[in-house]
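[audit] Reproducing an earlier prediction to check determinism. Same input, same settings, fresh worker. If the tokens differ from the archived copy the diff job will pick it up downstream; this log only records the rerun itself.
[audit] input (140 residues):
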Amino acid sequence: MTINELQDNIIDEFSMFDDWMDKYALLIDLGNSLQPLNDKDKTPQNIIEGCQSRVWLNAELKDGLVLYRGESDAVLVKGIVSLLIQVLTAHTPEEIINTELYFIEKIGLREHLSPTRSNGLLAMVKQMKLFAIAFSQVKK
């Protein structure tokens, strides 16, 4: 599935709810389904600066695709991490670099986060793109 198809699926899923309390519950459910990160990956190098909560992100390049893993100590943020991973993992670095993450605005996520959480969201997206940029420089 393409990144845009994945984003469209998320938009459809969130559009089923009118109330933001229901959307927050969906985010929490997504976070609870996120595979826990190994303790060895919870290093200072993997912490996302600028987040109110602690967020760890790591990535690897496997068979030309970027595979992301992440976790947070806050349930809502864990759901946001889960959404970003769902959209961006298992795509080429070039696809990730060149994509616009429009689902964030379309589902109203940024406007329903506190300013510090919104900054954290931007920091997570930035780090995921930086991983992709770094991997795009790897000789094949």
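[audit] rerun output stored. Observation attached for the diff report: The radius of gyration is 14 Å.
[audit] end
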